[in-house]
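One-letter codes give the sequence; the fold follows as tokens. An example follows:
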Amino acid sequence: MTVAHHDPHVGRLFEEMALLVTDRVGDPAAIHEQLVELATANAPDVARYWKQVGAGVGVPDAAYKDGGPHLFPDEPPVRVFRTSGTTGSVRGSVRYSRLGLELKGLAVAANARRSLVPDGDRPVVIRFAPTEEAAPDMAIAFDMARIQETCGDPALSTSVIGPSGVDYELLASTLDAAVAEGLPVVMVGASFAFVNVCDRLEAEGRSWVLPPGSKMFDGGGFKGRSRAVGVDELRAAVRRVFGIEEFGNIFGMTELANQLYDAVDVPVGPLGERPKAYQTFGGPRVRDPRTREHVTEGSGLLEITDLSLLDRPHVLLTGDLGIATADGVAVAGRIAGSTSRGCSLSLDEMTGGR
């Protein structure tokens, strides 16, 4: 028997999930079990899959190439996000119900408060991502808007990606204003957006020394359309151009609701990728591709649990390589035979990558 979006049980589950992802209060194991039951009841394909491989094993991200499982098909979605894919490939899509989208917004905002501005300051947030109005089907646009609303100085914070790519004059004027007022800057966006911006500004001989407390958080992978750039190489370029000394990486996927932040500043992956920790509201684990068991050390398939995900199965088996360590799991790019994908590639192209 399926469970409707307006069922009181879903409303109670939403409240439990919201409390967990915002205040870290609740029982993650109990919420996991309820979400497994919901997906089993509302998605026959998922129920059959779990009967074969085990309940709660991540649903492969390839399942979303044709829209994937959606747990409330009779409830009109309020938002649809699409994966960027690659040239000539089919774009995946995910649908959000009213409660699902509200929960995603709460989770992204709470995670940003804890990870970007734990001291409660309101820095100037500069988004190297389009606005929601310009890119309503890009999850990164939604997420970065929530980060700005939650953490940013309301007067100066802005997106610097426009219809023609990076608005360099807006970027320069915003940075100049932040320096003049002594306000720290938090720059967020796709990894290769930063690569392309730094390439151009260095070629033009332009640079800033941003106020103390300024930070850069890049998202996505480190392989663009034309080259790969290591974490430390990217951070060195950002340090030269913007005078920033604090860094972090944000991992997100269109299929997920929440984001993962670095746990420690320790290079693990082949390009220096840092590990992400498993937290109260979920996080990364690594599965052995042969036994399907979780491993605590070494590489395997990256699986992510997201207890802020209401509209589809909350455990995702990605096409990425995960490297498990005592500090968490580093995301080390697509596994052999998988194509590069994600918002980072889209923003690489939008910001001048070739």
Residues 339-347 have pLDDT under 50 and may be disordered. The radius of gyration is 20 Å. Residues 98-115 form the longest helix (18 residues).
